[in-house]
Amino acid sequence: MQDAHWLILLDFMEKHPSLATGKFTSASGKDQYKKLWLELAGLLNGAGYGQRTLEKWEKVITKLWC
């Protein structure tokens, strides 16, 4: 991950803390979780340092985050 990715990630997690914690309160929490990951992956891919799939971004970020 590049510095730009970290800035995007931290900004996104501040705006969507439920993604960072994995805790969603609605019945559609699983759908919301996937939607937020798709949005985040799009932002990260848009930073201009190559492309990764949603699954690869999720793996990299959860490995670094935990």
Describe this structure in words.
The model has no long low-confidence stretch (mean pLDDT 89). The longest helix is centred in the middle third of the chain and has 17 residues, at 29-45. Helices cover 71% and strands 0% of the residues. The chain has helices spanning 3-15, 17-21, 29-45, 54-65. With 66 residues, the protein is mostly helical.
Number of strands: 0
Shape: globular
Strand content: under 5%
Largest sheet: none
Q: Mean pLDDT, rounded to whole units?
A: 89
N-C termini distance: 15 Å
Contiguous runs where pLDDT drops below 50 for at least 5 residues: none
State the helical fraction.
over 70%
Structural class: mainly alpha
Write down the Rg: 12 Å
What is the number of helical segments per DSSP (H or I, 4+ residues)? 4
What is the string of SSEs from the N terminus onward?
HHHH
Protein name: Regulatory protein zeste
Subunit structure: Self-associates forming complexes of several hundred monomers.
Domain Myb/SANT-like DNA-binding: 7-59
Keywords: Transcription, Transcription regulation
